[in-house]
Each structure stands twice: as C-alpha cells, then as structure tokens.
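Late entry, evening session. Most of the bench is empty. Finally got around to the prediction I had been postponing all week. Sequence below, unchanged from the version circulated by S.P.
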Amino acid sequence: MILKETTMSKELIAPATAADTQAGITVLGENIPCTFIASGLAGAETINIQIETTPGNYINMFSEGSQLELTATNNVLTVFGPGEYQLVKGITAGAAGAFMTSNQHK
C-alpha cells in the first residue's frame, strides 16, 4: 500500500478591508509545517501571527528577535506544530485576506 501525503488549503480571513481575527488554527503533530499566505496587503499593512500560551490567551510570535507577520513584501511564512495559532489583521486600504496550507490541521 502506498500512502500519499495530502496538503489541504483553508481560507482563514476572507479578503476585505475591515479588521479581522481568525483564532483556533490547530496544527497537529510535532514539526508539522503550516504555511500562512496573505493576499492584498500594501505598504506597511500586516497580518500578525500569534500562538496560544494558555487557553484563550494569544501572544505575538517572534523568531530571532523579529515579529512573525505577513506583509506586502513577505506574504508567506511557515510555522511548525504542534500549536494553536491565530491571525490578526488590521484595517487595510484594499481587500486583504489570508489562508493556510498544511497536511495536518483542523
């Protein structure tokens, strides 16, 4: 039997100009990659990536002293599970949104 790894895509924040938060992004399994992708961001607009530290409490994620965020010029970021994540988008000039790809998420 050949097992095939399946990558799933999921829209997290529908493209819009309003601020939005998408919580409850669960990545299952140790060292499982989850890629967040933003569309429509311009200038200094960002979508912050946060991780849950205790139930219902999220903090911004950092790597080597820099905050992990999606921007107009860095619109793809990969994190590794396990973890419970959320994305936080501020008001944007144009319709901006985000989705994720992972082979193990719910």
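Two things to note before I forget:
Confidence is low (pLDDT under 50) at residues 1-5.
The longest strand covers residues 8-16.
Will write this up properly tomorrow.
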